[in-house]
């Protein structure tokens, strides 16, 4: 699966939206910060295989967050 910019942005928005639904302020702020930091850290990645791997990891994390919220 080739990751497009649109897919990455959609994942970012979904992660931010779901992370913002934690009832506890501490969990909510931690999750939001982790999402922002992870995307900033990998902002310069150009390798398509690495991007796809990061996208898959992000989707797995999204499912985990959805179960916990």
UniProtKB/TrEMBL annotation:
CDD domains: Complex1_LYR_LYRM4 (cd20264)
GO cellular component, one term: mitochondrion
Domain Complex 1 LYR protein: residue ranges: 6-63
Similarity section: Belongs to the complex I LYR family.
GO biological process entries: iron-sulfur cluster assembly
Organism for this UniProt entry: Amblyomma americanum
InterPro entries: Complex1_LYR_dom (IPR008011), Complex1_LYR_LYRM4 (IPR045297), ISC_assembly_LYR (IPR051522)
Top-level taxon of the source organism: Eukaryota
PANTHER family, alphabetized: LYR MOTIF-CONTAINING PROTEIN 4, PROTEIN C6ORF149
Protein name, per record: Complex 1 LYR protein domain-containing protein
């Amino acid at each position: 699966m080739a990751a497009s910019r649109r897919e990455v942005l959609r994942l970012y928005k979904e992660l931010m939206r779901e992370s913002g639904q934690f009832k506890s302020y501490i969990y909510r702020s931690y999750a939001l910060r982790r999402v922002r930091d992870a995307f900033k850290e990998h902002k310069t990645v150009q390798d398509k295989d690495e991007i796809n791997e990061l996208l898959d990891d992000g989707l797995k994390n999204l499912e985990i967050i959805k179960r916990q919220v």
